[in-house]
Known about the structure:
By secondary structure, the protein is mainly alpha-helical. The protein folds into two domains: about 25-285, Lysozyme (Orthogonal Bundle), CATH 1.10.530; about 300-365, no CATH class. It has helices spanning about 25-40, 80-95, 115-125, 130-155, 160-165, 185-190, 205-225, 230-235, 240-250, 255-260, 265-280, 310-315, 320-325, 350-365; strands spanning about 300-305, 340-350. Strands 1-2 form a two-stranded antiparallel sheet. Helix 7 (about 205-225) packs across helix 8 (about 230-235) and helix 8 packs across helix 11. The two termini are about 40 Å apart.
Amino acid sequence: MQARLTHGVLVGVPPSPGARLRSVTLGVVLAAAFGLLTSALGCGGGAATAPLPQAPAPGGSAGLVPKEFVPPPGTRAEAVDPQLVKEIKAFFEKNGMLAGAPPGVASDLPVILNGPVQAYLKHFTTGGKALFQTYLNRSRRYLPMIHQIFRQEGLPLDLAYLALVESGFSNHAVSPAQAVGMWQFIAGTARRYGLRVDDQVDERRQPEKATRAAARYLKDLYNQFGCWYLAAAGYNAGEGRVQGVMRRRDTRDFWIMARHKWLPQETCNYVPQLIAAALIAKNPGKYGFTPAPPLPAPLAQVKVRAGTDLNRFSLLADIPLATLQDLNPELTGERLPASPREHLLRVPAVKRKAAVQAAQACAVGVP
């Protein structure tokens, strides 16, 4: 998988970007936040608790936070906002991410305010804001479907924002490694999870089918690693690479892996991007983003005979070919594939009757 938002990084939390955290020493913020969080949860730092990953020392980035975003030594620290801590706690409780991790697995909770996460909060709300707003707008079209599938599969709903990090919710995204679609599947993994990939159909671009495949893959990764952050890392880098680091380095803590660069830099950035993206997307107004546009018009599915010429169907149904291609991104050409015998074509719901009639007319003469 390829992360799509691998831009430079950050520090700070809007609505006034950087104003509240500009003078905060990262190590102090992290320690204070951890104390507030553990206090709020009623949990202590007993021997069974995984060690808290350390933020980069002031003046150095450890490869994750650029030096220009690290406050100079001796800067006066500010108190961590208790309301922010409360929101973060609720975020994880709602998504079932505070329980079930095996002993020794890094907690999902203490790392939420570390340097890399703060960096991406800053980036997404400053230099990357316009692009992030585009992705938020596009997410409106797909999040209801993704959430429905993730509920059915028992996944934390906010893993939906992996699609924002992967592709910006674009079915047409293609990475340099030829990972394709919203969930950025390479061909081999796509086929392993039941997606059709050939010269006529590429179901990596079909949003519902690709989402179901991604959900099954994420469940398998969680069952393998016992931690959603490691599952996300495995989704990005491949489960074999993550498993290899765990075996060689004797750790199950993603943040230790990232700090020591035992995983690819893209993967080290991937989980902080996910956390920051989820926090912003769940409350965009707080972070200075405009509300997403209204939901797009509802769709309908129409059975169309194999081999149908989409140009002819488009003309008869009075639906622009570009609209058909946008709604059915898995089709690679302008003619439906020869198999299966019928294809479910997505059309605007208001055009359903015309589309049914067009499908019947196109069936005449099609072998």
